[in-house]
Amino acid sequence: MTIAIDADKLLTYLDANGVDASTQVTRGWDHLGAVIVDAALQRRQRYKGTVEPRVRELIAAWPDAETAAGFRARINDGGLGRVIRWKSEDRLIQINEILHVFEAEHINTVSDLRAHFASSIRRADLRKALRSVKHVGPKTLDYIEILIGNHSAVAIDVRIQKVASKAGITNHAYSHLSDVIHAAAAKRGWRPGDLDAVLWNAE
After folding, report:
1. Confidence class of residue 203 from pLDDT cuts 50, 70 and 90?
2. Rounded to two decimals, what is the model's pTM?
3. CA 109 to CA 81: how far, in whole Å?
4. Residue 202 pLDDT > 70
5. Quick check: 74 pLDDT over 90?
6. CA–CA gap between residue 159 and residue 6 (Å, rounded)
7. Could you give the maximum distance between any two Cα atoms of the chain, in Å?
């Protein structure tokens, strides 16, 4: 019942502010290196000003990094920090460790990654393996699914929590807000991922 009530609160807030999620949004990349870098850099960073430009620079500089094999060869040659203009070692290590997980799971392309997430068993195993990487939690796992085009995936962050607060929703637990977004989207016939995209920009 609480999920349904909070979904109505969210929709009331969006209606009052002229916000809707009826327009379908395409997010993500068909370049595996871009997916990994985007997922690793997004934590506590401004997306448009910091993350997206670096991901686009990676794609332009290393088009062959669209596969895990190509990305590994480029990383082994050095220069990842220079290409994405990043000095902090922790993010570079995280990128390398996520790539290691994909390699261990025989994921070479974004299509391979989509296939893994489409299988309930392989999805569970992959998410468990990725959780072993430092700083990869539920939000990053869901965000990776967004980056490969899963329109049912939502990733709860501080921006969405702020919108929830403005809508009068007091329970900001990750799973609760995820359920609320799915319920609100279902009420309007929207894709959850499109509502998630709107909320990211609504705060």
Report:
1. low
2. 0.90
3. 22
4. no
5. yes
6. 17
7. 55
Amino acid at 181: I
R_g over Cα of the chain:
18
Per residue, what are the HEC states of the chain?
CHHHHHHHHHHHHHHHCCCCCCCCCCCCCCCHHHHHHHHHHCCCCCHHHHHHHHHHHHHHHCHHHHCHHHHHHHHHHCCHHHHCCCCCHHHHHHHHHHHHHHHHCCCCCHHHHHHHHHCHHHHHHHHHHHCCCCCCCHHHHHHHHHHCCCCCCCCCCHHHHHHHHHCCCCCCCHHHHHHHHHHHHHHHCCCHHHHHHHHHHHC
Give residue 168's pLDDT. 94
d(CA 90, CA 123): 26
Tell me the per-residue pLDDT of 122-143, one tens digit each, with 9 for 90 and over.
999 999 999 999 999 999 999 9
Q: Which two tokens stand for residue 160?
A: 């969405």
Six-digit token string for 109 = 């392309």
CA distances (Å), origin 135, targets 77, 122, 131, 140, 145? 25, 21, 8, 8, 16
Q: How far apart are CA 147 and CA 70, in angstroms?
A: 19
- Tell me what pLDDT residue 199 has: 87
Mean pLDDT, the chain, whole residue set: 93
Pair of tokens at residue 55: 């991901």
What token pair was written down for 116?
């893994």
